[in-house]
Write a structure and sequence with these properties.
7-stranded mixed beta sheet; Rossmann fold; 13 helices; alpha/beta; 3-stranded antiparallel beta sheet; Beta-Lactamase
């Protein structure tokens, strides 16, 4: 299953992430680890078909990010929230609509893209390059129009991503953050204090948007639905980033529905109000519980209470999400 090089890496680090295909119809993300002196492994099934944003339940206007000529777009959320799946959908949209050169740097490669209108080259850390930082040092010499970075892991990777976005490339990347203001703060805080003013200015001009997402159990008790937070860097939000007032960005998003923005709490409340999820499930994900209560208009029905009882019972109904698997 693992190659000789991968096994050598596992022997050295006692940890290994890689993708494995059984056939053209079965592909897995695999993690090898050691426990009590023995080997263990976790397998996560990767859908072989790249789904559209609509299939995934992601708002249509997120697709507008694929039309940008340049800038940085971040897709964030906890582990297992579908970030890679959303990025695959965005890259596929670029691939279908633009005659560009796309370069991805991933660890490991999960979704296999084919050339459509665009030319796409996928590089895997460990197999095609030693590290994200090493690949990104050279990526600008490969004449890309669009760059996908699997994860912004360190200062060097973030610095190259910002430079690439600033020099006319469209850059997509992920972070493990929960909301847009926290995402911006995370990027800035990676840098030493004497550089943070410069990074705020860089972000204010290069960051085009942040899509945060999480998965919430459905009220029916079967499957999960995606909930999102969407921020676009308007001139007003750019000024807030530049001035270090990221704590005010939430209010700007709340007032920016006409521009395609909303907070996670607003989206969770909408899902509760239409009966897709229960208030109890939403409360486990909200950021401002008092503010959330003001957004929820719907009184839970007996079926909602029944769904809560099912959830409390600990029964696992699997990972079948709204519109398709993440």
């Amino acid at each position: 299953m693992a190659s000789t090089d991968q096994l050598a890496q596992f022997e050295e680090k006692q940890e290994l992430d890689f993708a494995y295909s059984l056939s053209t119809e079965s592909r897995f993300r695999v993690n090898f680890y050691q426990q009590r002196g023995n080997w263990g492994a976790a397998f996560r099934l990767i859908p072989t078909k790249i789904k559209t944003l609509k299939d995934l339940g992601i708002p249509d206007h997120v697709g507008d990010f694929s039309k940008l000529p340049r800038g940085l777009v971040l897709v964030t959320g906890p582990t297992g929230s579908g970030k890679s799946t959303t990025l695959a959908a965005l890259i596929d949209l670029v691939n279908e609509t633009r005659a560009d050169h796309i370069v991805t740097v991933e660890d490991p490669i999960e979704f296999m893209h084919e050339h459509k209108r665009a030319i796409i080259n996928q590089r895997e850390v460990g197999a095609d390059t030693h590290s994200f930082a090493n690949a990104l040092k050279h990526v600008l010499r490969q004449d890309p129009d669009v760059i996908l970075i699997g994860e912004l892991r360190d200062l060097e990777t973030i610095s190259v991503a910002l430079t690439a976005a600033e020099t006319g490339h469209l850059v997509f990347a992920t972070l493990h953050t929960q909301d847009a203001p926290g995402t911006i703060d995370r990027v800035i805080d990676v840098f030493p204090p004497h550089q943070q003013g410069q990074i705020r200015t860089q972000l204010a001009t290069t960051l085009q948007g942040v899509v945060c997402q999480t998965l919430v159990p459905k009220a029916t008790g079967t499957g999960r639905v995606v909930s999102t937070e969407i921020m676009r860097t308007t001139p007003a939000i750019g000024n807030l980033i530049r001035e270090g007032k990221t704590y005010q960005i939430t209010s700007a998003m709340q007032a920016g529905k006409d521009l395609g923005m909303h907070t996670m709490d607003q989206d969770l409340a909408d899902l509760v109000n239409v009966g897709t999820i229960t208030r109890k499930a939403a409360m486990e994900k909200v950021h401002d519980k008092e503010g959330f209560d003001r957004l929820v208009q719907r009184v839970e029905s007996p079926s909602d209470a029944s769904a809560d009882a099912i959830a409390a019972s600990g029964i696992d109904f699997g990972d079948k999400y709204s519109g398709g698997d993440f």
